[in-house]
Amino acid sequence: MIKLLLLIIPIxxxxxxxxxxxxxxxxxxxxxxxxxxxxxxxxxxQTWGIKDSNTTLQTLPQSKNSITKxxxxxxxxxxxxxxxxxxxxKTINKTNNLCLSCHNNHKNKLDSxxxxxxxxxxxxxxNNEFIGTDYKGLFPHDFDKAxxxxxxxxxxxxxxxxxxxxxxxxxxxxxxxxxxxxxCHKNSKMGKWEDKVNCTSCHSNLSKQNHKNxxxxxxxxxxxxSWNISSYELNVLRDDTPNYKQWKRLQVxxxxxxxxxxxxxxxxxxxxxPKMPDYLTNKLKNGIWYSGYKFRRWExxxxxxxxxxxxxxxxxxxxxxxxxKDKNGTMILDDQNKIDNNKIEAFLPKVPHTITxxxxxxxxxxxNKIMLDKNLINKNILKGKVLKGTPLSLQQLNxxxxxxxxxxxxxxxx
Amino acid sequence: xxxxxxLLTLYFTTxxxxxxxxxxxxxxxxxxxxxxxxxxxxxxxHGVLDVLKYQFLETKIIEQTTGINYLRNKPTKDQTxxxxxxxxxxxxxHIDQDPTIFNPNYHTPRGGGCTTxxxxxxxxxxxxxxxxxxxxxxxxxxxxxxNRSNRIGxxxFGKFESEGYGTPYKNGELTxxxxxxxxxxxxPADIHHTSAKLDCIDCHTEKGxxxxxxxxxxxxxxVDISCVDCHDPKFEPIENFGLASMLIALNGNMxxxxxxxxxxxxxxxxxxxxxxxxxxxFYRKKDGKDFDMILxxxxxxxxxxxxxxxxxxxxxxxxxxxxxxxxxxxxxNSKQYDWIKHKKTKGKWIExxxxxxxxxxxxxxxxxxxxxxxxxxxxxxxTIYDKNIxxxxxxxxxxxxxxxxxxxxxxxDCIDCHxxxxTLGLGAGILDIKDGNITFEPFYNSIKSGxxxxxxxDSLVSKDGQQFQTFSRDKARGFNKYEVIKIVEAYKCILxxxxxxxxxxxxxxxxKTLFYxxxxxxxxxxxx
Lengths: 414, 528
Hints:
Largest sheet of chain A: 4 strands, mixed
Largest interface: A-B, 70 and 71 residues
Helix content of chain B: 25-40%
Radius of gyration of chain B: 25 Å
Oligomer: heterodimer
Strand content of chain B: 15-25%
């Protein structure tokens, strides 16, 4: 596989007409996370039990054949479930030109504005669970057939632009003002892609009255985001047997291939072999990956420290429960939710793109049920291990209900 | 097909008694009860149909029609939409349903008259003449029907009908099935189940369940019991109740006491709660295990004047099964099984949803005028297909208040009601107080989500007390402007005085007056 990719990439480079004018861009691109996808890949591999995973899309090993533990299965999962989205993936870019995954074609300097990545281009990948569609206020519906609602006025099921229908919640203030992704996420002059965006580089004059010193450690988004997508317990099952009947109501799994496949397989009188593509080789391989959550919410959140000591909102990504049924119907992994006796729970500090002018009200954090562990229903899945950060310390938690907080809060009430 | 039905009929007549045979047999001795059952909602479903017609905007006042009996002879083509919906989706469950119409592979057989509730295995009957008949009705018999609508039968046992994911997968299969297409996940069960394994009949009396002979408008009018009947009981000598002595004898698991508790609503005997000298014991009906009754405490949190309007369920229910958006799709020209006429008739319904929740039950004024947990019930949006889609579709958004049967010993804390927009009935969003005024920014955008309403789907009321969604009960409503302000105002105190035994709550109104006239320590600092 690696050899194959090494072969393909130079061919792409040569055939890429963009490079005539933008000779250095390809090198920059190759350094970017968009190209290597190393963040998502390594986090997933670590969560599934590969310690110190350090690989990229280009060096990702082939799926293993002998499987005894989740770590043996993760590369297959990545290749066939997650990595449908990568630069030049056939699902997002039908051309052979890598650049066109994000940019549009243009002819000369005069029409170079056309080449700017549009929001729609970004959302081709950045939808559903992750940051992107939340910017537009979209929250995915559940999978079951009953959630293909509401029926439109012309009598059809609602559109599913990204494989699933959406609830419309309040959208990001920047979206409401007409800004698109690249207005903040600029291709900076330094040539590094995906520089961290700083709110303060635009919003430098913060009112002192509302932005007190004691909140210095908070990221802007922990107060100024309204809701966030939290999906609890991602159950994944690779089934190598033709067992389709139980998915009749669950054909929509945010996976267009699977949806088409199930539709065909459930109708067909002959047994159709369970096959699903490896999105890196574009070859069909045995077995189907199914997935389902426990539930998803937009109201819940809690705060954690990120790796730089800033407080951010934690997002469950994900609390995996992993199953694998082989060709003979043997369960190699059956609902495994532990690696080395530790529950697979990963919360990541995130920046929900649901920014509002008006910040959260104080009690949403200071009386946050999850953080204070008060009267929690489903306690065991609402909290968990934090990757790329740490949970709030006892000292930090004590501050939530401190005398100082109450004094300060009381001042705002009258 | 006819052959199969014959076989099934044979099966049930020999094993379960068919509807008619059980009733005719039972009626010989229990004629009095049979009359009560005839009038009960569980038999005739009039309460369900009447509310549905109101919900479907077919009536403005809830009248007592005649439910199942009324529809039995009404031709399908003359049925209204609500009546057709009722026949196709609701009418499967009623006491005199014919159990042979159910395919046991897909549906639990229901109905059959007395046996639908009283039937048990051969070994568990009362005596020789009642080999399969018991008065110690197992909850599983109740659950044959009581697992839908407000889902109390599931909630009590800690099951929440889920979004349908069927997770976690075990052995490569979907798990946690309720029935063919329905799944659940576990949430904390009702404390009466977790701590004492009480069955439905341990609380619900025979009068409440089988009716008192009157044809009641609504289920809650039939129900006999309330929390205080046990937790703040009133006792009377057992001699006053012939029925109690008979039922104790029939039960055989509990002693014969001097005094028994009586229900406050219908004055009927709660013979399982007994007082002898100074001990008060509660006996579980299935095996006679005794429990010391935990009496409602006299602590201020129960006696506070400001909380007198709260129903017990308002604080002690930890979650409520809430189903948002009930998208009813009606195909005029297709056919669907009619549970009353027992054949496929014209008109087919499918139901879609928006989303489910269980957290932070909203509160509202319930059917009894007290503050109770509430959830959507129902938010109907119809789409009607003739040959093509027609424009007849209507929408009607309502909430309903009920006891969710998710009781916990610990109540929700003060903050959870006094500054939580979901509890106030405003829906999810950001609730704050700015310059003394309440501000609220909701999350849900109904218009963009394609719904025919201009308020968030989870908003029962606005922050100004505008009632967005209706109730089918006269007294029930969301909080009004005055109440919203009053509840949120209390948060200003609760922020620091967050314990119920704080002296300021002894006479809250007096404390407030002192505060606002700058006569307390904190008011000097806070009031400008």
